[in-house]
Specification:
Two copies of one chain form a homodimer.
Chain A: E1 3-4, H1 20-36, H2 38-49, H3 62-71, H4 74-92, E2 99-102, E3 108-115, E4 118-122, H5 131-144, E5 148-152, H6 165-174, E6 178-180, H7 184-193, E7 203-205, H8 210-219, E8 224-225, E9 233-238, H9 244-255, E10 262-267, H10 270-284, H11 290-300, E11 302-305, H12 309-319, E12 323-327, H13 332-335, E13 343-346, H14 352-357, E14 383-390, H15 393-409, H16 413-426
Parallel strand pairs in A: 1-11, 4-5, 4-7, 5-6, 7-8, 9-10, 9-12, 10-11, 12-13
Antiparallel strand pairs in A: 2-3, 3-14
Helix pairs in contact in A: 1-2, 1-7, 1-8, 2-7, 3-6, 4-5, 4-6, 5-6, 7-8, 9-10, 9-11, 15-16
Chain lengths: 427, 427
């Protein structure tokens, strides 16, 4: 791994907005689904996924779901159930109540907090179909109280069947209420506008390829969407007490995701820097996804050596990484100084995969420096708030003149008159 | 006002994404500011606002601020202070604490909640400079704990001075910490990328013209932005007990905003429908902004008569209005049935201007049907969350095998090994 100065390093990469051809193709697909519904949906599913379906075959049946449970190993079901339990427990703590502020003049002001009514979750086909991502998208919606959670995923084997049984089982365990075998931009458009077979949703989330990402941007406003994730990142902040083999393993676990992934060590120990660099080389040799991890380490990996831990913290705050591991002797001492990081893993035993799969916090975390202003997925992403204003007669009589002054100052006489007419008739 | 069927009416309008020329112009401005900073900022300020400034004149001085306080009426300062007090009090109740979940195995899981560090608020020039909007954008950020709140507003009279003193005073009362006399797309780009004179921010909010809106879209991702508001809307849900003169005044207070604004009455009383239609005509006659209000009422206003209140509630939920007034005999009975509405005003004395200016809840509320999935501005819009994971050795030893099974199932051996190496060395 190369050793670079803090100034020379930035996690941020250009966002991929697709080619003009990809954008045009997506716009066309979205329009076709909007105007002809199932007809276009079935046609694109045949064209892109090679599955020649009819409308009545779009929805996954209970029978298929039961068959999927037979197909997967019991140990997988146990592992997914345990992870789902932890994730649910952590997200339960994020739930909030509607509240009211009761004023002495009889007025009531408040915020009403409600779940979204219907949410769509996109799950990619093939190798990118990660059961853990299904849990992380679906459980927060379910905990928020969303009554209808719809999963869409492409028919992956080109036949009429062919949805990964692990995904089906995970979706059922997480709380999905409807599943459809459609994918790509056509699935996103179907969720946004609805078709004869699929009712429209209020929000669409979940990862996908560039066509899925562009389709989500295209329908944003008609429905809400989640943010579009960049390549994954880890920054490890370590002092001389850290274990170089653990750090190397954690850096590689990030690097194996994707050639664009980024794995950075920030340390105040030159000795640790050298030991980690050597460990990374050694561990790379036997890693199955060696080629991916190596490309990531070469192009987007780095070791940054600082004078002090404090200086290292400045680097971390500037990078605003998706994942931060703090492997120093007293990690708790530094948490309060971390201003920008999506998820913070503390100490020797909090390896990132603990959070990726199991501990409970969400693994969908802001990338590309956006932890400066955004947050991991949580229950808040699946609720909406309404303000409530009940003003008493007493309150209106006491404050009406002030309200009218403010309205008239803005040249909005109609606003002032809405108050004036009440003061005249009730005063 | 025309009486229409519920089926024939929809609040939603196409969103204005600007002409290709406007988009190209904004892209150019953003690139110029990104690459040459103050130089481009001063040049565009001269070109578009006619103000020939130097860099040292961009920032509003304390002296100017003091002069502004001398210029405005004491009654205005009192009114703004009273409104700011109420808005602050309501938003204070939205603050949340970081939290931890302490597990019996010694692990700690939590969410760290922090304010954004630096926020930019855009305030339009000229007649669209509403002091109330300054309060509604700035106070939630201030209550969230944002230490640096920067206001930008165009120099409005074409000279070196020329910022509306009411805006300056309101910004100071709300908690703005820096003010710059720049506007348009160039101001948005300066906030996003920073210049020699203006440090970059983490989030940009506040209304503006189409160039401001396009610039915000252009810089989204580099910084966070607020949502882009459509024309304002009110729906009044009323029964036969409601006062037609109050309803008409409230509908007109919305209609006077903008020819594109929408004012709708939904009622189960044909008699009330007729009375409101007649009142609207009568009150329109003496309204200063009669032409605007009349165009709005003609083109985007309607009275929808339903059989029952329940049917009226279905209409409301479908429309998902920005503002909803419930003027029925027992308004509290119906709040629980409202699924989609940005702000809900209850009873005869909760006229919309009460909320626009004074009561406390935010007046920046989702438009265009987006109350189905989004919320009024609040303190949550100015915080970010980080997950915290401290896993104990005991927890890792107990759960390591399950985590490895999930990782290996996804083909991510590097993830499994990050756990395995610890189990080997510590187990």
């Amino acid at each position: 791994m190369k050793i670079v100065s803090a100034q020379d390093f930035d996690l941020r990469r250009e966002v991929d907005y697709g080619s003009p051809e990809q954008n045009a193709a997506v716009k066309q697909i979205v329009q076709d689904i909007k105007h002809t519904g199932d007809k276009a949906l079935l046609q694109y599913t045949k064209q892109f996924d090679g599955a020649d379906l009819t409308a009545d075959l779009l929805r996954v049946t209970d029978k298929e779901l039961q068959a999927a449970y037979q197909e997967v190993e019991p140990s997988f079901v146990q592992a997914i159930t345990a992870a789902a339990h932890n994730i649910r427990q952590f997200h339960e703590k994020q739930k909030r109540n509607s509240w009211m502020d009761l004023q002495p003049d009889g007025s009531l002001l408040g915020q009403i907090i409600r779940p979204l009514k219907r949410v769509g979750v996109y799950v990619p086909g093939g190798k990118a179909a990660y059961p853990s991502s299904v849990l992380m998208n679906v459980i927060p919606a379910q905990v928020a109280g969303v009554p209808e959670i719809v999963m869409v995923t492409p028919p992956s084997t080109g036949g009429k069947e062919g949805i990964n049984p692990y995904i089906l089982v995970t979706a059922a365990e997480a709380g999905v209420t409807e599943m459809y075998r459609v994918g790509g931009a056509q699935a996103i458009a179907a969720l946004a506008y609805g078709t004869q077979s699929i009712e429209p949703v209020d929000k669409i989330c979940g990862p996908g390829n560039i066509y899925v990402a562009l389709a989500k941007r295209e329908v944003y406003g008609v429905v809400d969407i989640d943010s579009i994730a960049g390549p994954s990142e880890i920054v490890v902040l370590a002092d001389e007490h850290a274990n170089p083999a653990y750090i190397a393993a954690d850096l590689l676990s990030q690097a194996e995701h994707d050639e664009m992934a980024s794995a950075i060590l920030v340390t105040c120990s030159a000795q640790l820097a050298a030991a980690v660099a050597s460990e990374v080389q050694q561990q790379l040799e036997t890693l199955p996804r060696q080629h991916i991890a190596n490309a990531s380490i070469q192009n987007h990996g780095a070791i940054i050596v600082t004078e002090t831990i404090t200086e290292g913290i400045d680097v971390v705050n500037r990078l605003a990484p998706e994942h931060l591991e703090i492997m120093v002797e007293q990690p708790m001492n530094y948490v309060g100084m971390i201003e920008n990081a999506g998820a913070i893993f503390l100490g020797n035993y909090s390896s990132e995969p603990v959070g990726d799969y199991f501990a409970g916090p969400n693994h969908i975390i802001p990338t590309n420096g956006t932890a400066r202003f955004s947050s991991p997925v949580d229950v808040d992403d699946f609720i909406k708030k309404s303000s409530m204003i009940y003003y008493s007669k007493e309150a209106l009589l006491a404050n009406g003149n002030t309200i009218m002054e403010l309205a008239r100052h803005e040249g909005l006489e109609g606003h002032a008159r809405a108050i004036a007419i009440r003061l005249e008739q009730e005063g």
